[in-house]
Amino acid sequence: MYFPSWLSQLYKGLSRPIRRTTQPIWGSLYRSLVQSSQRTNPEFNSFAVRTNTCGELRSSHLGQEVTLCGWIQYRRQNTFLVLRDFHGLVQVVIPQDESAASVKKILCEAPVESVVRVSGTVTSRPAGQENPKMPTGKIEIKVKTAELLNACKKLPFEIKDFMKKTEALRLQYRYLDLRSFQMQYNLRLRSQMVMKMREYLCNLHGFVDIETPTLFKRTPGGAKEFLVPSREPGKFYSLPQSPQQFKQLLMVGGLDRYFQVARCYRDEGSRPDRQPEFTQIDIEMSFVDQTGIQSLIEGLLQYSWPNDKDPVVVPFPTVTFTEALATYGTDKPDTRFGMKIIDISDVFRNTEIGFLQDALSKPHGTVKAICIPEGAKYLKRKDIESIRKFAADHFNQCSLLGKLRLECADLLETRGMVLRDPTLFSFLWVVDFPLFLPKEENPRELESAHHPFTAPHPSDIHLLYTEPKKARSQHYDLVLNGNEIGGGSIRIHNAELQRYILATLLKEDVKILSHLLQALDYGAPPHGGIALGLDRLICLVTGSPSIRDVIAFPKSFRGHDLMSNAPDSIPPEELKPYHIRVSWPTDSKAERAH
Amino acid sequence: MYFPSWLSQLYKGLSRPIRRTTQPIWGSLYRSLVQSSQRTNPEFNSFAVRTNTCGELRSSHLGQEVTLCGWIQYRRQNTFLVLRDFHGLVQVVIPQDESAASVKKILCEAPVESVVRVSGTVTSRPAGQENPKMPTGKIEIKVKTAELLNACKKLPFEIKDFMKKTEALRLQYRYLDLRSFQMQYNLRLRSQMVMKMREYLCNLHGFVDIETPTLFKRTPGGAKEFLVPSREPGKFYSLPQSPQQFKQLLMVGGLDRYFQVARCYRDEGSRPDRQPEFTQIDIEMSFVDQTGIQSLIEGLLQYSWPNDKDPVVVPFPTVTFTEALATYGTDKPDTRFGMKIIDISDVFRNTEIGFLQDALSKPHGTVKAICIPEGAKYLKRKDIESIRKFAADHFNQCSLLGKLRLECADLLETRGMVLRDPTLFSFLWVVDFPLFLPKEENPRELESAHHPFTAPHPSDIHLLYTEPKKARSQHYDLVLNGNEIGGGSIRIHNAELQRYILATLLKEDVKILSHLLQALDYGAPPHGGIALGLDRLICLVTGSPSIRDVIAFPKSFRGHDLMSNAPDSIPPEELKPYHIRVSWPTDSKAERAH
């Protein structure tokens, strides 16, 4: 059993295509909040002033004296109230007799979402009043004592309506949004899945969890790195985009098998569905080849996969970068459905259709097609028009067919066909990427397709000295349902080769990496690794519309914390120790005027 | 069994008082590298191109064909070499027959610390050549094939001598230092102990591992927070000193039981044995009181404690802040030994000794003593002199007696008495701290003794409105062998009380915390928590002289990464997107001249 049953039970109540229905309501989840009696469940009441959680009580608890703590979900006619904690809901009977007047007063006057502690007896509900939709629906609590732990002011809106509100409002009141079932589920599933990954790596396969610094030196071309001013004038730390250098240095240091759930930083300005800080499952090992890393990751995902989903089948299929582009028009294909791109040039070799003749007469000219299954049945005339328009709009983009494939899938799904089952998880390895790409600014120069530490494909090493553009790398990407969720490579462990690639091919300043080059000279073992994007992975597993739904306190797409209003102004005197001044845009205009 | 036996076996080879002998040599540890056959051991060879680790081979492997990867530790007369990996050492026989000339060439010519892969057969050593000090000492490897995976250039010094070198050199070549037994042991123990803590919190007690942001807003009085410029002119993130606000907001969000192995940041400039980034085991829970948190932590340490040490005995003793000061002269007493401070005023009430009369005649005047056990036997005349001088030097410091107690302990140990057994771990809770302290700059104003979210002692709430200086708090410190390794408190969950303390008593600008105050208004549950300093804890457990010895890539005491030379200069054009300029010290002089 991979997952605590209470969590998976909790999940089953979610309607299936959650990707499109993101407003689960506590009420609809009653039946799913089944507390299992399995011994693998954690003890939720240890060290606390309660005896039980609200959600765990059943007929088996009848007659027990319990103390519960929770939030008032709602109250009915001053006779009942429903108390909520993370685990579920329970009905509490408000005593009506004179001797319990003070208890009645507390429970009737406390506003909704106030926090109370109640003690009383678990009793059967009167016949006919059971609620079969509620896991605790056979019982209720006859209260003896009650205490108002904290009164709640009037909320900006009801907790159950949170998912319906604008995201800005949800982020501003994140601490209220977190009370929603969906956020509780997402964060708890994330915690559990990471814990299983740790067990697999650390306990089963001898990996060492090592923390690496985040205050580091800038990396070559690290234009997306946040800076941290130090107390030395003009000297800055950088917040690295990944522990890449450190994990390679750990291999040189003989640590052999490293992993870390690593916080990484990337300053991309405003980008939708990106976060300035994000988390990756960062892995590196020595004496390994590409297939070794792939098997490790397949086992990792299989082991940590939530057991309320279909088990992960391994090994994952593999396609080369070239095949992926030819077949799906993208290097991160969604393989939950077919509609592959097919070369039909031969069919038209002798055609008299002018534009096809033109295409085929050009060097490397081809005619390609996508077969839309039952397209004639599902697609309407205006759909065909929109496909035609889409194609025209994206004309001359080599990724056109890949985009068209997804566009057609969207259209088919709009018309009721299920192409991309949200409960299906289709993993795919993409391998044999090119080692270099032409630089965008200057296509005669090369840049690393991934990063400069990626080892060339063993068969292509000779090409580095003749036609480096043609060299393939030992980089591999892991794709899930059309999303890149991880990437890694076998690294260069030979200092001479690393120097040649950095200095001669990439024309980088090697001084900035002298420590790494020196380390490779001192007995670096062959090594390789991978990093999985945890936020994206959990987002896909939970079917969330955004990675912000699987992060407790995310930034807005502009990089703001809408709750606390970060980033914020800093008094000039607090900048002094760091020897920096703000260059106000007006200042710089004034300077230019000089 | 708490700890993988291979790790604890490995440990037992360390001579006991490691605090003082920090140069463990691989050679002396042979006998401790016993590979247990227990099934709890992780699989170290999965996914790798080796069949076995060097350190695991025994007579039970005789006749097996094995492939090993490792570093050449040393070579003897071109007939043997010793191969090392993280797990231990094994003897490899260099073949001498003509047909294996290429193998011989590789193994004889590769410099020490080169990385090789060898394949061959596990055989018995010839009679009389066994090495009982070496766990693999009964066997050797008859090599058939060998491959030089990476040649090593001449090292700046031998790996086994690393601990003897200056720390600056060790930090500069950290990737070599990491190959030392002690660093391997420290980092692996750290990983294991944290893993056990996670199991305890997550699997046994239902805590949720939640990541909180490190790019946040500055906190009141956050003068020690690093700044991170954003792309908005004049707006900065801060790197928080702890997830304090977030963990409280998680409680408001109903997450109930939170933990995180949290990266924290503190810019204290140059401080010995402090790091600009450090790690804490960060915990918060709802519906808990002080004793609940204490029991939780006692259980946590008991569960995660390395099993090569004496088990942790719970509950830990508790003293109040006042008692600690009176008895030990410090709020973090080392309770491994007695020598308590005793009030002997009554003995001297009628004394005629002038300076004692003087002391006793003053208000609150007391005479206190420390009894040094067998002092007369152990201490020499010059020791007494040095005690007298120490007392004179620290005259008028209220912590004098506490310091004197430790000074005397040092002296006794120099003379051969064992007072502070390095294998003894003496935990202590210190409770009932004052809630406020007078501000250093202006003693009429108050500042929080710990932080402004600390709840007052239930018996002292009325004092907040009359004599706040006298109010005790619900803060608790955990002390181990005279070091503070953790601290926490029950928090204020009442918005009105929090506002009163912030605005009226502390005179803080409450605007900067408006989100937290608002959160308390919306049904915040009673909650409390704690943070353990992981670096310090592991430092004490491993008996390391510095926290730098339990961190893979620490900064020097000036905050430098000596390996990569961080912090570093940044080209002015890379500062532009952040709207900052460097204020060079010469500039500011020029400005002052205006």
SSE order and pairing:
Two copies of one chain form a homodimer.
Chain A lengths: L4 H8 L52 E12 L3 E6 L2 E6 L7 H9 L5 E10 L14 E12 L16 H6 L1 H4 L3 H24 L3 E2 L16 E4 L5 E5 L4 H9 L4 E9 L11 E10 L3 H15 L13 E3 H8 L12 E3 L10 H8 L6 E3 L4 H4 L2 H13 L6 H15 L12 E5 L4 E3 L7 E3 L26 E6 L2 E8 L4 H11 L8 H8 L5 E7 H9 L25 E2 L2 H4 L4 E3 L2 H9 L1
Helix pairs in contact in A: 5-7, 11-12, 13-14
Offer a concise description of the structure:
The structure is a homodimer of 594-residue chains. Chain A has 594 residues and is α+β, with helices and mostly antiparallel strands.
Q: What does the model show?
A:
The structure is a homodimer of 594-residue chains. Chain A is an alpha+beta fold and 594 residues long. Chain A has three domains: 43-154, OB fold (Dihydrolipoamide Acetyltransferase, E2P), CATH 2.40.50; 167-319 and 423-594, 2-Layer Sandwich (BirA Bifunctional Protein, domain 2), CATH 3.30.930; 337-419, no CATH class. In chain A, 28% of the residues lie in helices and 21% in strands. The first copy, chain A, is built from 17 helices and 21 strands. Chain A has helices at 5-12, 101-109, 167-172, 174-177, 181-204, 244-252, 290-304, 321-328, 354-361, 375-378, 381-393, 400-414, 495-505, 514-521, 534-542, 572-575, 585-593, and strands at 65-76, 80-85, 88-93, 115-124, 139-150, 208-209, 226-229, 235-239, 257-265, 277-286, 318-320, 341-343, 368-370, 427-431, 436-438, 446-448, 475-480, 483-490, 527-533, 568-569, 580-582. In chain A, the strands form five sheets. Chain A has an eight-stranded mixed beta sheet with strand order 6-9-10-19-18-17-14-11, with helices on both faces. In chain A, helix 5 (181-204) crosses helix 7 and helix 13 (495-505) packs antiparallel against helix 14 (514-521). The longest helix of chain A is centred in the first third of the chain and has 24 residues, at 181-204. Chain A is globular and about 95 Å long. Mean pLDDT of chain A is 90; it is low at 1-6, 8-39 and 590-594. Chains A, B: One of its GO terms (cellular component) is mitochondrion. Chains A, B: Belongs to the class-II aminoacyl-tRNA synthetase family. Type 1 subfamily. Chains A, B: It comes from Piliocolobus tephrosceles. Chains A, B: Residues 187-554 form the Aminoacyl-transfer RNA synthetases class-II family profile domain.
